[in-house]
Amino acid sequence: MNTVKTLFSVASCVICLGVTSMVNAATIEPKGANFTAPGTITVRSPASLYIPVSCNINFSGNVTADGSKAMITGATVSGSNRLCRVPVLKNLPWTLTATSTTSGTVSGVMFQVLSDCSDTPATITGNWSNDQNRLWISSPQQVGNCTITNLSVNPNPRFKVSE
Asked: Theoretical Cys-Cys bridge with 146: which of 37, 45, 73, 155, CB 3.0 to 4.6 Å?
């Protein structure tokens, strides 16, 4: 019986250590900085009859003082397509968390393109490159009945993600 208790205790400690290291996997610098992140986004929505529409996007926000995450507090969308003028971001702030030095998530994502894409927040997964100072998605990301098929932004000031 003691062997089972010891095994359970050791397994619990290993799991807790693993979860702790995953939660504190990476930090974003410069800590405490305000930022903008200009780039491009392509979305398929009911408003476009699910035809991809590409627009310019410029996110804004701030990195937390401890660098554990960045808060996206706003964005402007522009472009030659008329639908680039109508998106509304909802549920702000969104939370950008670096899960490693090469990947991250943006949680709380909600928006509308003439009508709501979703009633519940989505989490978008993406890739990060310190060398390119670039955050992008490599596969389509579903937000309700809308799909982000392309997203690529470059933060200013330049981000550095480290473990």
From this structure: 45
For residue 113, count other CB atoms closer than 10 A to its CB: 20
For the chain, the average pLDDT equals 88
Neighbouring C-beta atoms of residue 46, cutoff 10 Å:
14
Q: How far is residue 107 from each of residues 38, 97, 110, 125, measured CA to CA in Å?
A: 19, 8, 9, 9
Based on the structure, what is the number of domains in the chain? 1
- The H-assigned helical ranges of the chain are 2-23
- The pTM of this model reads 0.83
- Domain contains 144: yes
In a domain, 52, yes or no: yes
Question: What is the domain-level CATH number for residue 88?
Answer: 2.40.160
- pLDDT by residue (tens digit) across 86-139? 999 999 999 999 999 999 999 999 999 999 999 999 999 999 999 999 999 999
In the three-class reduction of DSSP (H, G, I as helix; E, B as strand; rest coil), residue 24 is classed as coil
Residues 22 and 24: their CA atoms lie apart, in Å, by 5
**Domain membership flag for residue 18:** no
